[in-house]
Amino acid sequence: MGSITGVETSKVADKIWLVFQALGDIAFAYPFSVLLFEIQDTLKSSPPENQSMKKAAGIGISIQTFFYLCCGCFGYAAFGSSTPGNLLTGFGFYEPFWLVDIANVCIIIHLVGGYQIYCQPIYNVADRWKSRKFPDNGFMNNFYKVKLPLLPKFHVNLFRFCFRTIFVMSTTGVAILFPYFNQVLGVLGAILFWPLTIHFPVEMYIVQKKIEAWSRKWLVLRIFSFCCIFVTLAGLVGSLEGIVIQKLH
C-alpha cells in the first residue's frame, strides 16, 4: 500500500532529504547533453547537423520519459511506499528467475555500451591534454599494431590503454565502496545537471542570439538557470546525506 505523499517518514526533515535525493535522481535521468556535441560532430549535411540533432533529441527525450514513467508508475503500483530504487535487486523477490536473469543480462549489455559512450568526453579531454603537453613523447602518441589469434589487426596507444584501464578500475572501485544505488545516482545527476545541461547551453544561446543584458528574454534565462542551480544543490546535498546515513547504518 502507498499514500499520496509517498514514502512515510517519522520526521519532516527525513522527508525533505528524500525529496532532495529524488531531485538528484531525476536530474541523472537526462545527462544526454554531455554527448550532444560529440554525436553532432560525426554527422554530415544535409540536412544540417543541428536540425538532425534537434529531431533526434526530441525523440530520445520522449522515449526516455515514457520508460522512466512506466518504471516509476508500475513500481509504485506494485510495491507502494516500499518501492526500491532498483526494481531488479531491491525487493528480495527473484522469481521467475529466468526473467530476472534476462533483465540483468540486458542491463549489463546496456551499461557496457553506455559506459563507453558517456566516458568519451573524458577520454577526449585526456587525449587532447597529452597531445598538447607531450607532442613528441612516444608513449603518449605512438600507435602500435597488435594481432591477436582469430582477430584482425588493431592499433593500440599505450597511454590510452593505461589511462582508460586505470579510469575504469577506479570508477569500479568507487562503485564497490559506495553500493548505494539511488544516492550515488543522485550525486552524479546533481553534479552533471546544472553545469552541462543548463549553464553551458544557456550561455551559448545568449551569445549566439546576441541577447541584450537585462532584456526580458535575458532575465527569463537567468531566472531559469538560477532555479536549476537550486535543484542541483538540493539534489547534491540530499544525496550526500543519504550516502552518509547508509554508510553509518
Automatic annotation (TrEMBL):
It holds the Pfam family Aa_trans. It is found in: Cell membrane; Endomembrane system. The chain crosses the membrane at residues 16-37, 57-77, 97-118, 161-181, 187-207, 219-240. Residues 8-243 form the Amino acid transporter transmembrane domain. It is a multi-pass membrane protein. Signal peptide: none annotated. Keywords: Amino-acid transport, Auxin signaling pathway, Cell membrane, Membrane, Symport, Transmembrane, Transmembrane helix, Transport. Carrier protein involved in proton-driven auxin influx. Mediates the formation of auxin gradient from developing leaves (site of auxin biosynthesis) to tips by contributing to the loading of auxin in vascular tissues and facilitating acropetal (base to tip) auxin transport within inner tissues of the root apex, and basipetal (tip to base) auxin transport within outer tissues of the root apex. May be involved in lateral roots and nodules formation. Belongs to the amino acid/polyamine transporter 2 family. Amino acid/auxin permease (AAAP) (TC 2.A.18.1) subfamily. This is Amino acid permease 7.
